[in-house]
Amino acid sequence: MVDLQSQYKRLKSEIDDAMANVLEQTNFINGPAVKSFQSNLEEYLNVKHVIPCGNGTDALQIALMALDLQPGDEVITSTFTFIATVEVIALLKLKPVLVDVDPDTFTLIPEEIEKSITSKTQAIIPVHLFGQGAEMNAIMPIAQKYNLSVVEDTAQAIGCDYKFNSTITKLGTIGDIGCTSFFPSKNLGCFGDGGACFTNNDALAEKMRMIVNHGSKKKYYHQIIGINSRLDTLQAAILDTKLKHLDNFNQRRQKAASWYDQELKNIEDLQIPSKSSKSDHIFHQYTLKVKDGKRDELQSYLKENNIPSMVYYPVPLHEQEAFTEYQDKDISLANSETLSSEVLSLPMHTELTEEQLKDITTTIKRFFNHE
Ligand SMILES: *Cc1c(COP(=O)(O)O)cnc(C)c1O
């Protein structure tokens, strides 16, 4: 699905130099590369504060901790996302309220958010799934109307432009806090775990900087309960190097996606990814919808032909065993349920060659007798 090796080989000398530098300095925790990456990312995203942390799941937890929510407060988010988004809500003794997604863009339906708001609702977490923005133009006014905080899950969409009202903005910088992950396979990935929160709000930034550092501003003086969540210096040095290439990484993904689109758009039983009118798409995943119950059969056929593919996500979160206590028994979030039986993601990364793409699309066409 991803080819981290070829990307490393292509950027080897730059990355090796950055890593060697850290090894020589042995400043492994909060070394100079962390500050450097932080300020370069602030500049890239055009956001006032970046708070690096240990991983994307921590970033979401840190964001929610900074919002001062009370046990039992409700947080509305998507049922069609990676588990991390919802896990942290439950871990903080808040109540996840899962909402259905648009069947074309796979992102939250603003009307469904509004319908789910109660007197206990405190926050919304829109997920910019697969590399495309949720409908922030509709979500932000709802948040304002009901005085709710917005935490953007930008783990799959770092660097993606969104036309917010009339301004082109980076996703993750529109709500109160944006969160991202630098997991190796993400669009900006390090060589281990990493994550960050972003905000334009000085008070939230100050609080998140304390939370990641055991609730402390001054060593051994702790004002609030925090956690230990840091981006290693080594990972920061790698990310600082790779950040310079992020736009190019995203363009390479878009180029591969255009190939897939062009070759697959005329197959009746396939639906290629829909494009939002407001958001760019940076293709963290290239996700097809396979109609007529042919998804699993197509996936097996690809496997026989040595082509990897993945189902993101096979079970919507409201149907996960871990979340049964949070859901009404007969809740039906029909779009997400249907999607989980239709979606199929194809290999997507920065190093896909024309030969590989051709092999993948010809195999798919052969399956549908569409040559
Ligand atoms: C990857 C991901 C996360 C979690 O990031 P980690 O760094 O793996 O903890 C959260 N949300 C979404 C949507 C993700 O894709």
From TrEMBL:
Keyword Transferase: yes
Official protein name in the record: DegT/DnrJ/EryC1/StrS family aminotransferase
Keywords: Aminotransferase, Pyridoxal phosphate, Transferase
Similarity section: Belongs to the DegT/DnrJ/EryC1 family.
Lineage, uppermost ranks: Bacteria, Pseudomonadati, Bacteroidota, Bacteroidia, Marinilabiliales
PANTHER family: TRANSAMINASE, UDP-2-ACETAMIDO-2-DEOXY-3-OXO-D-GLUCURONATE AMINOTRANSFERASE
Secretion signal, residue range per the UniProt entry: none
Domain of life where this protein originates: Bacteria
Gene Ontology MF terms in the entry: transaminase activity
Cross-referenced InterPro entries: DegT/StrS_aminotransferase (IPR000653), PyrdxlP-dep_Trfase (IPR015424), PyrdxlP-dep_Trfase_major (IPR015421), PyrdxlP-dep_Trfase_small (IPR015422)
UniProt KW Transferase keyword: yes
CDD domains: AHBA_syn (cd00616)
